[in-house]
Amino acid sequence: MEESKKKIHEEIDPLTNDKFVPDHEFDGIRELNNNPPSWLNILFVITLIFGYAYLVNYHWFKAGDLQEEAYAKEIAKYTIIEEEDVEQVAENALPIVYPLTDETRLADGAKIFANNCAVCHLAEGQGLVGPNLTDDYWIHGGSYDEVKTLIMNGVIAKGMIAWKTQLSKKKIDNVASYIFTLRGTNPPNPKAPEGELYKAE
Ligand code: HEC
User: Fold this and answer.
1) How big is the CA angle at 138 (ends 135 and 141), to the nearest 5 degrees?
2) Residue list, ligand 1 pocket, CB within 6 Å
3) I need a surface site. Which of 86, 124, 177, 201 has the fewest CB within 10 A?
């Protein structure tokens, strides 16, 4: 018994020179014990490398969005545009003339200010390249409408950007309203007053 098994194991197919798999015979048909072809091995290694790279990139370093997040982001883009369209229509019908008090919009305004305006007006609005936004002196008028219009159109010659090409109307209202919350906060090292004393009517 032992002898015959060993013999089968070592048996070579005379046609292909490949080894037979021992004991794999049915109806006189026998299975060969071939190595997989090298192109298949190479492909396998490539899928391994890809798999690890994917794992490290997406699950370890979280450098990319997985499909659910990518999809949600794409959808969110269109939802925001739709929301803004609706609000835009509403705003055109009845422009906002007073600073907003809504907390989420003010928080968004604070973020916009930190990202876009603080370089020139400083983090607390005390002024650097741009004027102090916390005092009652305004070069271009201190009413909400005047401030908002100025942010939209800028003063290109003086280095103040026209933000209407960069920010939506909604965002401009958010940041303009946020600036109003800075008034009278007396931050340290303020820039000297510029413009005229503004008094709300
Ligand atoms: C590159 C520098 C720069 C950046 C960035 C900048 N500003 Fe200005 N800003 C200025 C300058 C300079 C003036 C003064 C313009 C003038 O003298 O007429 C100004 C003026 C203003 C005024 C009018 C002040 C007044 O006294 O009438 C407001 C309001 C204002 N900026 C808001 C913003 C907001 C909001 C942002 C961000 C969305 C911003 N600025 C970003 C440079 C900047």
Assistant:
1) 135
2) 116-117, 119-121, 129-131, 133, 138-140, 147, 150-151, 155, 158-161, 163, 175, 179, 194-195
3) 201
Atom of ligand 1 nearest to the CA of 166: 38
Each residue's pLDDT tens digit, 121-145: 999 999 999 999 999 999 999 999 9
Report the C-alpha gap between 49 and 189 in whole angstroms. 57
Q: Whose CA is nearest to atom 7 of ligand 1?
A: 160
Name which residue sits closest to atom 38 of ligand 1, judged by CA. Answer: 117
Q: Which atom of ligand 1 is nearest to the CA of 119?
A: 5
How is residue 164 written in tokens?
């209407």
Mean pLDDT over the full length of the chain: 87
pLDDT for position 49:
97
Question: What is d(CA 165, CA 147) in angstroms, rounded to the nearest whole number?
Answer: 16
Query: Considering only 10-24, 109-123, 150-164, 169-183, which range has the smallest mean pLDDT?
Result: 10-24
Distances (CA, A) of 108 to 80, 149, 176: 14, 19, 11
Cα distance between residue 120 and residue 126, in whole Å? 10
173 alpha carbon to ligand 1 midpoint, in Å?
Answer: 15
Confidence at residue 7, expressed as pLDDT on a 0 to 100 scale: 52
